[in-house]
Amino acid sequence: MIDTARALDAGDPLAEFRGRFDLPEGVVYLDGNSLGALPRATRERVSQVVDAEWGRDLIRSWNSADWIGMPQRIGAKIAPLIGAQPHEVIACDSVSVNLSKLIGAALQMRPGRNVVLSEPGNFPTDLYMVQGSPAAQRLAARDKIVDALDDDVALLMLTHVHYKTGEMFDMAALTKAAHDAGALVLWDLSHSGGAVPVDLNACNADLAVGCGYKYLNGGPGAPAYAFVAERHHDALHNPISGWMGHAAPFAFSDEYEPAAGVSRLLAGTPPVLAMAALECGVDLMAEIGIEPLVAKSRALSEFFRAAMAEHCPQLECVSPADAPMRGSQLSYRHKDAYALCQVLIARGVIGDFRDPDILRFGFAPAYVSYEDAAKAVNALAEILENDEWDAPQFKKRAAVT
Ligand SMILES: *Cc1c(COP(=O)(O)O)cnc(C)c1O
């Protein structure tokens, strides 16, 4: 299996990009869907921002280094990865906060309707944000969503690629169904952006959010992004109406007047150091381009899936078998998934565990090799063979799993 993997690596058009990341020796990193790896350019760029732009140029850098333009500039670079126009995307805040803003915006755009429809088992923060909003939450199983659309639904809010199983929704079909029912749609692209084909405008999507620290490699807690289709820009209301979203923040007016377009989604001052790191990750993904990323993701995950079926048949794959129907991840069910995950990590194979019994492997296409995939399957096969995982130290849960 290792020889086949090495041959595939030799023919991989993205192989050269692995060297653009700073990956630790001896680690097989299959968790880029939770925290992307460190691009080499990031370290230098962040030092430059700290030393020259902050340390030396101080407050002048808001203009001279265009710190103030970072949210729009980085948003514009993310746009081609998700089928958006450059002025429809802005980088800011966390996914959670952007969800809250766009839920509020959607309710304002659909007066007389107060339901946000989603699915049970969506990523927790997505549901919590609805629960903390003035909207009423309605949940329907994946195959019952269309039936649950009615005149009360202001917003259909779904995560495009499910974080646990990797299942992907049909964005075009569900967006159309929601529009036919008079509702808006908000797509969470956290597990999609930079890994799977997304064409928001071809699907006629209204609103979207996505994550900066997963496949975009923006660093731990990197700012997220938000998309609003151009046709909604004039009506867009941001319930977190902060000064950075004002038409003229430095006029210091007492009255809020929103900036044009997605810029009004800004609330407070951009986190410049985090934005600088995010921009390095986004630049690298933009340089590779979404099509090669998608092609590699599918081929690599297919390689892993076939190898697992052969060498670890005890583990049940819960992700769709058809690569275009899933995200860049594969999830497996095992009653002792947590302990298996800990033993793998102790051996330098980093995947993750999702409650209660899911072992999840992400295939960040920019830097994961076929050899990585083969090594992970080999390690797992050995662990299952010798019951190594069945020891108390591997069953104790850490704070972050
Ligand atoms: C990772 C992820 C988030 C993260 O939200 P933060 O507010 O940035 O912590 C939200 N939604 C989904 C679906 C995710 O996968």
Topology:
Elements: H1 2-10, H2 15-18, E1 28-29, H3 40-56, H4 61-64, H5 70-78, E2 89-92, H6 95-109, E3 115-118, H7 124-131, E4 136-139, E5 153-159, H8 171-180, E6 184-188, E7 207-210, E8 224-228, H9 272-288, H10 290-311, E9 316-317, E10 329-333, H11 337-346, E11 349-350, E12 352-354, E13 358-362, H12 370-386
Helix pairs in contact: 1-12, 3-9, 5-9, 6-7, 10-12
Task: Provide structural commentary.
- The chain is an alpha/beta fold.
- It folds into two domains: 2-30 and 290-394, Aspartate Aminotransferase, domain 1 (Alpha-Beta Complex), CATH 3.90.1150; 44-288, Aspartate Aminotransferase, domain 2, CATH 3.40.640.10.
- 35% of the residues lie in helices and 13% in strands.
- It is built from twelve helices and 13 strands.
- The strands form three sheets. The protein has a seven-stranded mixed beta sheet, with helices on both faces. It has a four-stranded antiparallel beta sheet with strand order 9-10-13-12. The protein has a two-stranded parallel ribbon with strand order 1-11.
- A hairpin with a 3-residue loop joins strand 12 (352-354) and strand 13 (358-362).
- The model has no long low-confidence stretch (mean pLDDT 97).
- Bound molecules: pyridoxal-5'-phosphate (PLP).
- The site of pyridoxal-5'-phosphate (PLP) has 13 residues, from helix 6 and helix 7.
- One of its GO terms (biological process) is anthranilate metabolic process.
- This is Kynureninase.
- It comes from Pontixanthobacter luteolus.
- Homodimer.
- Belongs to the kynureninase family.
